[in-house]
Design goal:
The protein is of the alpha/beta class. Helix content is about 30%, strand content about 15%. It binds NADP nicotinamide-adenine-dinucleotide phosphate.
């Protein structure tokens, strides 16, 4: 599959490397643009991209950034993505411990809905944390 991985830290870097090793076509990016990920991309057999490049032709996009960062992504990020692109957010919401508080979620909005609202697209998230 054609997979874009946004964030190549602990989880994104591991997923990108494993998926590339399985033969998937992987584009990777982080907050510092294409040049900053060239070396890592070469190492794992992926392509370096800027954030739009990681999304534009992807069948699957993995969001592997700290949870609140999704709210800061460009609002037009998915404008040129396919209607059927699958977006998976692997982040965990750890309020106070690591992440700033997000009042809507603290008031009961599911993380997946909040993330979907930030992106303007439906999104899969993993099982929500219960340790708030
Ligand atoms: N679901 C799971 O099984 C699982 C497992 C582990 C972690 N997680 C969660 O995954 C999230 C990330 O954890 P991590 O340990 O991988 O974090 P990390 O090592 O700090 O990596 C974060 C990555 O996000 C990138 N990033 C930050 N802001 C960005 C932006 N505006 N645009 C593009 N990329 C951006 C960073 O790029 P720069 O280096 O350029 O800042 C970095 O590559 C956390 O919420 C964590 O709890 C989930």
């Amino acid at each position: 599959m054609n997979i874009g991985v946004i964030g190549i830290g602990e989880i994104g870097g591991t997923l990108a490397a494993r998926l590339a090793a399985k033969g998937h076509f992987i584009r990777v990016t982080n907050s510092r643009g294409q040049a900053a990920v060239e070396e890592f991309a070469k190492e794992i057999g992926a392509q370096a991209a800027d954030i739009y490049g990681a999304v534009d032709s992807a069948e699957v996009v993995l969001l592997c950034m700290p949870f609140p960062v999704v709210a800061t992504l460009p609002k037009d990020l998915f404008d040129h993505a396919g209607d059927d692109v699958i977006i998976v957010d692997v982040a965990n919401y750890y309020p106070d411990v690591r992440d700033k508080r997000i009042p809507e979620i603290d008031d009961g909005l599911p993380e997946s809905i909040w993330v979907a609202q930030q992106l303007g697209r439906p999104v899969f998230t993993h099982i929500p944390q219960v340790n708030r």
